[in-house]
């Protein structure tokens, strides 16, 4: 019994498909969604989202955001959703190196928004590289 998966970023609707299952990076760990899952809303962490449709698994690198599960629909609202061919490995490596350098320069105040921004960039870059490199080795 498939359900609807919608992935939306601020720029566009990235995906709207009927799928068999979804696995995504929740804020408390990996979250698996199957048909008839109980309704929930939870935060997402940067990482890899995968879904199965007709026995084939597809993958996205996603950023921060939220997922809402209701009845026969899973809605993913995220600031980034990229498939492997959309990821420029060299550009991501450069962004990651810049973010790590910036993090080393920041005064680590406990409430610093800048630290949180840089850490989120590091997590998103790492998610992209993980997806790109893992897909290349298969």
Provide the descriptors you would attach to this structure in a database record.
alpha+beta, 10 strands, five-stranded mixed sheet, ATP Synthase, domain 1, 2 helices, five-stranded antiparallel sheet, single chain, 138 residues, 30% helix, 2 domains
Can you characterise this structure?
This protein is an alpha+beta fold and 138 residues long. It has two domains: 3-82, Sandwich (ATP Synthase, domain 1), CATH 2.60.15.10; 87-137. The protein is built from two helices and ten strands. It has helices at residues 89-105, 113-137, and strands at residues 3-8, 13-19, 21-26, 29-33, 40-44, 47-53, 56-62, 65-70, 73-78, 81-82. It has a five-stranded mixed β-sheet with strand order 2-1-9-8-5, with no helix packed on it. The protein has a five-stranded antiparallel β-sheet with strand order 4-3-6-7-10. It is globular and about 50 Å long.
């Amino acid at each position: 019994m498939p359900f609807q998966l919608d992935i939306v970023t601020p720029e566009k609707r990235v995906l709207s498909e009927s799928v068999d299952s979804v696995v995504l990076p929740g804020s408390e760990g990996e979250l698996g969604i199957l048909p008839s899952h109980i309704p929930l809303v939870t935060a997402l962490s940067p990482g890899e989202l995968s879904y199965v449709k007709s026995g084939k698994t597809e993958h996205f690198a996603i950023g921060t955001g939220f997922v809402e599960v209701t009845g026969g629909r899973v809605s993913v609202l995220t600031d980034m959703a990229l498939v492997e061919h959309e990821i420029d490995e060299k550009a991501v490596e450069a962004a990651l190196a810049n973010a790590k350098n910036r993090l080393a320069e920041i005064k680590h105040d406990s409430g610093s928004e800048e630290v949180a921004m840089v850490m989120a960039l590091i997590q998103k870059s790492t998610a992209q590289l993980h997806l790109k490199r893992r897909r290349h080795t298969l």
